[in-house]
Amino acid sequence: MVRNIVVLGGSSHPQLNQKICDRLGIPEGNVLLSKFSVGETRVEIKESVRGKDVYIIQSGGGKVNDHLMELLIAISACKTASARKVTAVLPLFPYSRQSDIPYNKTGAPLTKASNPYNKPDFAYSFESKPQTPHPDYPPSQGLSNGVEGLHSGLTKLQVDEAISSANSPQNGRFAHYSNASHAKGPKRSDTMDSLSSLTNSVFDAPSRYRGSSTSSTALNGNAHDENTPPSSNLQTPKKDCFQPRPGYKQWVAQAGTLVADLLTCAGADHIITMDLHDPQYQGFFDIPVDNLYGRPLLKKYIMGIPDYQQAVVVSPDAGGAKRATAIADGLSMPFALIHKERRPTKITDRQNATMMLVGDVSNRICILIDDLADTSNTITRAAKLLKKEGATKVYALLTHGVLSGDAIERINASALDKVVVTNSVPQEEHMKRCPKLEVLEIGEIFAEAIRRVHHGESISVLFQYD
Ligand SMILES: O=P(O)(O)OC[C@H]1O[C@@H](O)[C@H](O)[C@@H]1O
Predict the structure, then answer these.
(1) What does the record list as coiled-coil region(s) (predicted)?
(2) What is residue 354's predicted lDDT score, i.e. its pLDDT?
(3) Ligand 1 atom closest to the CA of 378, numbered from 1
């Protein structure tokens, strides 16, 4: 029995809330979670939390935005009600795949061959060029002071383009600036129209999808661009989207940073989560973040596979190699990596990506390791390649089985033999539809983490690599 503690469960994962409270030997805190007819979230803490340590459990799957808002409001409500300390417990951390600015596969800002700056000796810069604009730039252009931040940045770009357009009337994109009435700069109404179309274009640009590492592959003929989201998840980008100059950072929201700020701003004093997509995301917070590892659970599962030491641990992409090698090394198992290589013959050719296997998997069981599966494109394509290369069986072991959209159907139809996930997000519905799915329980790990944090004990034992 843990004292002076209140554990509140959000609406994202009631079974996990219950499991954690059972394990801690305390009843779930009394909170009313509801919605107004318009869709606004309402949270009412129905018991006293004055002077208590409150743990609010909310995971990142399902209606992720609603759950996030509910969590923020609940944190704020507890702080207002004089809770001593509020810890947000996020088994799957929402938005942590969007923690940085988008770059393409080469790590350079997106660019096109047709761009005048695309010379062999052109040095890429990760600095914003033009510089982050000043609100009143350029004063001589008569732009409104109300056009600030993002808009003024675009406006500066527009103005730069307008200047070059004046010398190149054939440049259609900003051709409207070269007509006589705009010779001394666009009028406000034109500016705003252009701004909104530009802004829309920017936010339609495919580059923002870096978080999804799904890749096109010549192997299965399923042409799908690295940066293009699967249709089930995100809108297809417009073809005529805005193309930035080389070296110019696109104005894409860094949602991960915002979410970190929102949690802190709402009043969170501490975060407990598991297998962050990018562990460096912890550095976005100025409050303690305990990033638990699902690895011990996955390793235990692997050790139950007959002759597991003859199997090969495989990372489905370079980004997950560190995670997978840690498991392979810990279990003295061989390791292989799937490398995605793209050699477009022309800049618009997005069909030429190939998945290449680095390592030998013939006549072996393969165990794919990744932090999460969302659409499952990554693991199903990897499984297809591994079977083609002679793998006898392919398991996919993932901490977070988000499995949104038609992911389950994709898994059922794939070369995967088994998919093993934790219940960091609800899996009941997935289990009913996917005979290949197996679920590992994480409630006990989170309960133990909460108990240890509450008593000021070390929790490193829970996230040690072995
Ligand atoms: O291919 P889906 O399942 O949509 O996305 C999962 C991949 O997206 C990445 O962020 C994850 O690390 C994983 O490799």
Answers:
(1) none
(2) 80
(3) 1
Distance 371 CA to ligand 1 centre (A): 8
Read off the pLDDT of residues 242-285 as tens digits, 9 standing for 90 and up.
666 666 656 667 888 999 999 999 999 999 999 999 888 999 99
Residue with tokens 């600030």: 148
Among 347, 368, 371, CA closest to 359: 368
Q: Which pair of structure tokens corresponds to residue 80?
A: 């207002």
CA 224 to ligand 1 center in whole angstroms = 14
Give the whole-angstrom CA distance, residue 114 versus residue 89.
Answer: 48
Taking 90 as the threshold, does the pLDDT of residue 322 lie above it? yes
Residues 6+ apart with CB under 8 A from 339: 317, 318, 355, 356, 357, 358
ipTM: 0.98
Ligand 1 contact via 378 beta carbon (within 6 Å): yes
Structural tokens at position 18: 């219950």
Give the integer Cα–Cα distance in Å for 382 and 396: 10
Which atom of ligand 1 is nearest the CA belonging to 212? Answer: 8
Q: Is the CB of 97 under 6 A from ligand 1?
A: yes
Evaluate if residue 426 carries a pLDDT over 90. Answer: yes
3-class state of residue 383 by DSSP: helix
Count of beta carbons in the 10 Å neighbourhood of residue 271: 21
Band (pLDDT 50/70/90 cuts) for residue 438 is very high
pLDDT at position 61 is 87
| Alpha carbon distance 247, 108 (integer Å) | 8
Q: Which ligand 1 atom sits closest to the C-alpha of 377?
A: 1
